[in-house]
Structures are given as structure tokens and as C-alpha cells.
Design goal:
The chain is α+β, with helices and mostly antiparallel strands. It has helices spanning about 35-45, 45-50, 85-95, 145-170, 175-180, 185-190, 195-200, 220-240, 245-255, and strands at about 5-10, 10-20, 55-65, 65-70, 75-80, 105-115, 120-125, 130, 260, 270, 280-285, 290-295. The chain folds into two domains: about 5-130, Phosphorylase Kinase, domain 1; about 145-295, no CATH class. It is built from nine helices and twelve strands. The strands form four sheets. Strands 3-4-5-7-6 form a five-stranded antiparallel beta sheet, with helices on both faces. It has a three-stranded antiparallel beta sheet with strand order 8-10-11. A hairpin with a 3-residue loop joins strand 3 (about 55-65) and strand 4.
């Protein structure tokens, strides 16, 4: 059974609805011992209210390594507490751009007072999803939708593999982008990378670098090849699979704007309902994960 308690913080009433299984000590004032995200909302309730956007109700929808998502007073908007600095940077940059269809719509982001494991924390208002996570059936007789879901998952895995390899290489040597983004490097990658290398049909997923075709390249060639592979996979997602169309288009959009989503996986996508698309949900990116700036330093 759910229980509701009233918190009085700085003269403001904040309602925290504690779901079954949650630590009830969260509702106390001072020295809170409950989930870290609840504490941050309680501590920052005035700043959250002053943003003039829907207030989080305290009903947590899900929690990951870096953040937690809550319902708000508007059923179409959720509030996320995150300690992922790359996500915060991505959202701030994304708010300056035209938002593509294939990602949840962001409304605002604020800095929060308090840290999570020595990381700064942020509050984000974004569009609510009707479901999160791609469920894939891999056994028995597969329907048309099952096959599309499996193909969507495979594209996500291939994209993540190429993007993660690029990210790892860039982090080790940031100035490598100065070379990888040059016109001659881009032209080289167009000639060097084929779709079978970007998304090998006989190698759906491998944690071993030696089994990854893109890992044969080194230095700026590896980065240029990985970025070209990401472009090719995003294009295939957009045009070859009706389930991944909008996600592929969004990934291509951000690549064109020098943003690489390097940790996108099946649990970072979900479905939303928008007036422009009727009552049928569409698949979008619900969590950008680790974003990498591709602007040469």
C-alpha cells in the first residue's frame, strides 16, 4: 500500500509519495537516510518550484546508475534527477537545437545543490514516455514486429559498439579529433568503411576488440572509421526498419551537429504518443546516455 507524507521545506509543502518497498525514512527532515534522488528533490524543492514547471510528485518511475525519473503534476512531463555530466551537457546543447522527432522533448534543465558520488547533479524536465525499454523475442516463431524489434536491437548494438570505440579513442587522445574531422579523413572513411564492417551480419555483438572490424584501424583512422560507421548505421535505422526510423533520424541529426550518443542501448529507448502521429506510439530515445562532443579542440 502506498503512503503519503507531507514535507515542510522552507515554508513550502512538498508531497512525497512513497511507493511500496521504498525506505520510509526518506520522508524525515534533516539527515535523510532514504534514496539519494529523494534527498536532492527535498533539498532543492524551492529551486525546482521557482523554475515554474510541473513539480515532481515523489512517485519514482525508475532509477539507474546516474539518475532517477519521477512523475510530475503534469502527466505528459516527467522530472529527472541525474548526476551524468555528459547527459547534462548534451541536454543544454540539445535545447539550443531544433529537436528531432526521435528523442524525448526536453523542456528545461537546472543545476541542483548537492552531489552524487562526488558528481554534480541536475534536474531535468522532459516529455513522459508511455513505455521504456525494447523487449526482443529471439525464440519460436517471430512475427513481423518481432523481426523489426530484433533488427532494431541489432542496430543499437552496432551503433553503440562503433560509438564506444570512437569515444574511448577520443578520451585517450582528445586532439585526435583535429585529424579525424578533416575533409581528407572523412573522404578516406567513406572509401574505407562498408556496411558489413559497420554492422557485420556474422558478429552481432562481441566484447573482444580483436573481433571488431573497426578496431583494425588505429589513431585518427579509427575515429574517422567509427564515425562513418555510426552514420551508416543511423541511415540504415532510419530507412530499413519502421520501428527504428525516428531514432535513426535523431542519431544522424546529432552527428551532423557534432554530438555522438556513445552509450545508446535497448533500455535507453521507449515509446511516446504525439498528436502529429495519432494514437499509435512511436519509438524515440528516452535517455541519451554518454554524449561526446565532436567539435575539434
Amino acid at each position: 500500500m502506498n503512503r503519503t507524507k507531507t514535507l515542510i521545506v522552507g515554508g513550502v509543502l512538498a508531497f512525497l509519495i512513497l511507493s511500496k518497498g521504498r525506505d520510509s525514512s526518506v520522508a524525515g527532515l534533516g539527515g535523510l537516510a532514504g534514496p539519494w534522488s529523494d534527498k536532492l528533490i527535498t533539498t532543492n524543492v524551492d529551486a525546482i518550484r521557482d523554475a515554474g514547471l510541473p513539480m515532481p510528485t515523489g512517485v519514482e518511475l525508475g532509477e539507474g546508475h546516474y539518475g532517477a525519473v519521477y512523475k510530475t503534476t503534469d502527466p505528459n512531463v516527467v522530472f529527472k534527477v541525474t548526476s551524468d555530466t555528459t547527459e547534462a551537457l548534451f541536454i543544454r546543447q540539445s535545447l539550443k537545437l531544433d529537436s528531432p522527432t526521435g528523442i524525448v522533448q526536453y523542456h528545461a534543465i537546472i543545476d541542483l545543490s548537492g552531489q552524487r558520488r562526488n558528481r554534480n547533479t541536475f534536474g531535468v524536465w522532459r516529455e513522459a514516455a508511455v513505455s521504456v525499454g525494447l523487449v526482443v523475442k529471439t525464440w519460436g516463431e517471430l512475427t513481423y514486429d518481432d523481426r523489426n524489434a530484433l533488427g532494431f536491437q541489432n542496430y543499437l548494438q552496432h551503433f553503440k559498439r562503433a560509438a564506444a570505440l570512437a569515444r574511448e579513442t577520443i578520451e585517450k587522445k582528445p586532439n585526435i579529433l583535429d585529424f579525424a574531422k578533416r575533409r581528407e579523413a572523412v573522404e578516406w572513411a567513406w572509401q574505407a568503411v562498408e556496411m558489413e564492417m559497420a554492422a557485420p551480419t556474422n558478429n552481432i555483438w562481441s566484447a573482444l576488440k580483436r573481433d571488431q572490424p573497426l578496431a583494425r584501424f588505429v589513431g585518427w583512422q579509427r575515429v574517422a572509421a567509427c564515425l562513418r560507421a555510426c552514420e551508416m548505421i543511423a541511415e540504415a535505422m532510419e530507412h530499413n526498419n519502421p520501428m527504428s526510423t525516428h531514432v535513426g533520424s535523431a542519431l544522424a541529426f546529432y552527428l551532423e551537429n557534432n554530438l555522438l550518443l556513445a552509450d545508446l542501448h535497448a533500455q535507453n529507448v521507449g515509446q511516446v504518443i504525439r498528436e502529429d502521429y495519432g494514437t499509435k506510439p512511436i519509438w524515440v530515445i528516452t535517455d541519451p546516455g554518454h554524449a561526446v562532443s565532436l567539435v575539434p579542440r
